[in-house]
Amino acid sequence: MPGDIVFHLPGLARLRRWSSLAALSLALLLAFCPWAGGQTASGPNPQPSSERSSDALPDAPLPQPSEPSQAKVEDRVTLRNTPVHILKDQAAIWTSPVRVREHDLAILVPLGLATTLAISADHQAMSSVVSQNASFNNRNVEASNGLLGGFVAAPVIIYSLGRIHDDDHATETGILAGEAMVDSLAVDEALKAATMRERPTVDNAKGKFFQSGVGLDSSFPSTHSMIAWSSATVIASEYHGRMTKIVAYGLATAVSLTRVLGQQHFPSDVLVGSAVGWLVGHYVFRKHRRESDEY
Fold first, then answer.
1. pLDDT tens digits, residue range 236-261?
2. Nearest residue to 269 (alpha-carbon basis) of 32, 107, 28
3. What is the CATH number of the domain that holds 262?
4. Residue 45 domain flag
């Protein structure tokens, strides 16, 4: 690229705006730390030997393993249980800030700082670095749409193959990946309504937030990125071989990149979309997967 990009010192008003955006970025990322609540144990804690010896009766009937409790039935990963699981997911996602722990900040703080830096460089990137050639942009938009279609179709295909071959692992993967995408879409729409950011094609790619004329077509965050990363994360977590991770995360990265190259989103839009999609997918997998990793 000819020449070097020169960043001019912004005025005081712009510094104040960046400070506000920094606070907004960190708050958004802190709002989505779905692992912060931790996981429950796979079974009840064993009682001390003294309690077992004093409380147990020799002729007490043993529980029947063939009759699972109602709680276990409701927690199973099935299509019937999925709507209830999604409602519980949303409650957990939106209340997750109260469960932030110190070790979570090792990820959340760098993400917040990266988002702030990305927002500050968005205008320069979209106006001077990313090509504005219409043909080039359209090819990237078509590529991102096609890749997203693959991520939406993948859970359906995996689930169908699981049903055909009586493979519980595959059916679980398909259901959880679909659940993660629905969760991500709900979060995405809420963030769009809250941020109301202009698209890069508007007002010389200034990327202003809180513009009432934007409506629900906010640029922040990237819907494509969030859905792709949520689906990819579940699939890569269920089938955790190295090649599966490379393919799943590589294609999700391609979705995010082509949204920027297509002049549809700013770099910060896809950064936050990708991060939140990963967090949601990771939460859904850890919360609802089978207790045993052996299939």
1. 999 989 999 999 999 999 999 999 99
2. 28
3. 1.20.144
4. no
Per the domain annotation, does 11 fall within a domain? no
- Write down the pLDDT at residue 91: 96
For residues 170 and 161, is the Cβ–Cβ distance under 8 A? yes
Per DSSP (E only), the strands in 222-279 are: none
Domain assignment present for 140: yes
Residue pair 230/152 in contact by the 8 Å Cβ criterion? no
129 close to 261: Cβ distance less than 8 angstroms: no
Full domain range(s) for residue 217 = 73-288
Q: CA-to-CA distance for 38 and 99, rounded, in angstroms?
A: 9
Q: Residue 284: name the closest of 30, 90, 50 by CA.
A: 90
Query: Which 8-state DSSP code applies to residue 128?
Result: I
Contact present, 251 and 200 (Cβ < 8 Å): no
Residue 144 lies in a domain: yes
Which single residue is written with the structure tokens 């890569």? 236
pLDDT (tens digit, 9 = 90+) per residue, 194-213? 999 999 999 999 999 999 99
- In the block, tokens 């090649």 appear at 243
Structure token pair of residue 105: 């900040």
Average pLDDT score over residue span 267-293: 90
pLDDT surpasses 80 at 267: yes
Decide which of 75 and 295 is more confident.
75
Domain count, the chain: 1
13-50: string of b/e by CB count within 10 Å (b at 16+)? eeeebeeebbebbbebbbbbbbbbbeeeeeeeeeeeee
Compute the distance between CA of residue 119 and CA of residue 51 in angstroms, rounded to an integer: 59
Query: Across residues 118-134, what is the average pLDDT?
Result: 96
Structure tokens at 232: 């990819």
Mean pLDDT of 40-53: 41
Cβ contact 224:146 at 8 Å: no
Mean pLDDT of the chain: 82
Q: Is-contact 244 234, C-beta < 8 A?
A: no
